[in-house]
C-alpha cells in the first residue's frame, strides 16, 4: 500500500463515516419512535427504550453498511473529482483500474468493520436488548444461558429456543404442573408455529405423563396446543434468522435437516449474510465509473440521490428474493447471491468501459 492508496482510502473513509453517522441517526430515531407504544407497559421506561436503541446500533451498522459505502464512496471520490485530483492521477499515467484497486482496499476495510459488527457485536447486544425489554414489560418470563426463554402460563411452563421463521420457533418444551407444583407431564416438539387463532401447531410432538407409579408416553406428528402465550410475546426473546450470526445459522440448518425439516429460510439467511457482506466491496467499486463518467461534474446532492436509489433497489431486491425463496421453493443460494452478482457485474463492466 503506497501513498496513493492511503490517500484514496482516507477520502473514502471520511465520506462513508459521515454518511453512516447520518443514516444511523435516522435509523435510531425511527427505532426509538417505534418503542413509544411499549413505554409504560410494565416497568419499560423511556430510558429503557433509549438503551434498546443503543444496543441495536451494531445491527444497524451491519444492515446500513452497503448503502453507506455506496453513498460515501460517491461523495469521497466526487470530492477528488471536483478538485481535479482524479484528473491529475490519470494524467500521471495511473489507470482507472489502479484507482479502482485503491477503492477496493477501502471496501475490504468496510467489509471487516461490517463483519465485526454483524458477527461479533450485534448478536449478543441485540439479544440483550430483547431480553431486557421482555423482562421490563412482562413479569412471568425468565432466561437460562444457552437454554432459550422460559414463560409461565397458569400451571404450564413453556421453554422455546431460537426463532427459525416468522412466528416459528425451533424447539419447544412444555412442563405441566399440578396445583401443589408437582410435575405432571413433560412434552417436547421439534418446531412450534403460531396459528392465526393464537394456538400453537407443534410438530414431532412427544409427551410423557407421570401418574403415581405409572408413566405414560404418547407421540404425534402434529399436535395443537392452546396457550395465552403468542408469537409476538416470545418474539421479544429470540432472534429471527436474518439476525443470527453465520455460525449459528449453519448449525441451525444442520439441525433442521437432520430432523427432516424445511430449512429454506435459514439457508437463504445464511447465504444472504455472506452475499451482503461481499456486496460492500462492489458498492465501493460502483462509485468509480460514476465519478469518472456522468457524475464527474455533478454536485454532492446528485451523487447522494444516485447512491440512495441504487441502495434502495439493492435492499428491495434482497427482500423480494427472500420471499421468493420461501414461497416459490427456489434455490436460496442463487436468490441470495443474485443482487450481489448483479452489482458486481455492473461495477466491473462500467469500470471496464470507463475512459
Largest sheet: 8 strands, antiparallel
* Continuous helix count: 10
The average pLDDT is 79
Which consecutive residue ranges, at least 5 long each, have pLDDT under 50?
none
Spatial separation of the terminal alpha carbons: 24 Å
Proportion of beta-strand residues: 15-25%
Structural class: alpha+beta
Amount of helix = 55-70%
Total strands: the figure is 8
* Cα-based radius of gyration, to the nearest Å: 25 Å
> SSE string, helix = H, strand = E?
HHHHHEEEEEEEEHHHHH
Folded structure, characterized:
With 355 residues, this protein is of the alpha+beta class. The protein has a domain at 141-241. It has helices spanning 3-34, 46-55, 57-82, 85-91, 96-137, 231-234, 246-258, 264-292, 300-327, 332-353; strands spanning 141-144, 148-153, 156-160, 163-165, 168-177, 183-194, 200-211, 214-225. Strands 1, 2, 3, 4, 5, 6, 7 and 8 form an eight-stranded antiparallel β-sheet that branches. The mean pLDDT is 79.
Which keywords apply here?
355 residues, 10 helices, alpha+beta, 60% helix, eight-stranded antiparallel β-sheet
Layout of secondary structure:
Elements: H1 3-34, H2 46-55, H3 57-82, H4 85-91, H5 96-137, E1 141-144, E2 148-153, E3 156-160, E4 163-165, E5 168-177, E6 183-194, E7 200-211, E8 214-225, H6 231-234, H7 246-258, H8 264-292, H9 300-327, H10 332-353
Antiparallel strand pairs: 1-2, 2-3, 3-5, 4-5, 5-6, 6-7, 7-8
Helix pairs in contact: 1-3, 1-5, 2-5, 3-5, 3-8, 3-9, 5-8, 7-8, 8-9, 8-10, 9-10
Amino acid at each position: 500500500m503506497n501513498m496513493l492508496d492511503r490517500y484514496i482510502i482516507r477520502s473514502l473513509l471520511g465520506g462513508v463515516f459521515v454518511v453512516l453517522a447520518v443514516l444511523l441517526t435516522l435509523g435510531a430515531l425511527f427505532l426509538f419512535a417505534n418503542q413509544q407504544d411499549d413505554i409504560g407497559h410494565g416497568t419499560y421506561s423511556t430510558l429503557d427504550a433509549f438503551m434498546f436503541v443503543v444496543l441495536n446500533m451494531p445491527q444497524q451498522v451491519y444492515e446500513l453498511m452497503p448503502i453507506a459505502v455506496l453513498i460515501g464512496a460517491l461523495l469521497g471520490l466526487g470530492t477528488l473529482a471536483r478538485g481535479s485530483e482524479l484528473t491529475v492521477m490519470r494524467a500521471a499515467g495511473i489507470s482507472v483500474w489502479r484507482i479502482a484497486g485503491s477503492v477496493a482496499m477501502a471496501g475490504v476495510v468496510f467489509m471487516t468493520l461490517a463483519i465485526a459488527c454483524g458477527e461479533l457485536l450485534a448478536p449478543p447486544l441485540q439479544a440483550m436488548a430483547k431480553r431486557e425489554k421482555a423482562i421490563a414489560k412482562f413479569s412471568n418470563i425468565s432466561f437460562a444461558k444457552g437454554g432459550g426463554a422460559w414463560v409461565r402460563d397458569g400451571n404450564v411452563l413453556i421453554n422455546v429456543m431460537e426463532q427459525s421463521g416468522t412466528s416459528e420457533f425451533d424447539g419447544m418444551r412444555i412442563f405441566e404442573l399440578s396445583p401443589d407444583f408437582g410435575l405432571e407431564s413433560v412434552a417436547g416438539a421439534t418446531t412450534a408455529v403460531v396459528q392465526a387463532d393464537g394456538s400453537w401447531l407443534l410438530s414431532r410432538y412427544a409427551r410423557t405423563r407421570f401418574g403415581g407409579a405409572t408413566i405414560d408416553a404418547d407421540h404425534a406428528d402434529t399436535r395443537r396446543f392452546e396457550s395465552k402465550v403468542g408469537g409476538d410475546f416470545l418474539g421479544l426473546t429470540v432472534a429471527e434468522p436474518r439476525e443470527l450470526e453465520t455460525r449459528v445459522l449453519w448449525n441451525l440448518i444442520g439441525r433442521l435437516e437432520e430432523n427432516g425439516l424445511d430449512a429454506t429460510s435459514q439457508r437463504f439467511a445464511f447465504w444472504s449474510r455472506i452475499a451482503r457482506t461481499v456486496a460492500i466491496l462492489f458498492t465501493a467499486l460502483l462509485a468509480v465509473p460514476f465519478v469518472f463518467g456522468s457524475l464527474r461534474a455533478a454536485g454532492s446532492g446528485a451523487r447522494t440521490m444516485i447512491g440512495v436509489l441504487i441502495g434502495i433497489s439493492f435492499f428491495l431486491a434482497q427482500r423480494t428474493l427472500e420471499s421468493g425463496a420461501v414461497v416459490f421453493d427456489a434455490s436460496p443460494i442463487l436468490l441470495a447471491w443474485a443482487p450481489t452478482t448483479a452489482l458486481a457485474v455492473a461495477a466491473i463492466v462500467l469500470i471496464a468501459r470507463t475512459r
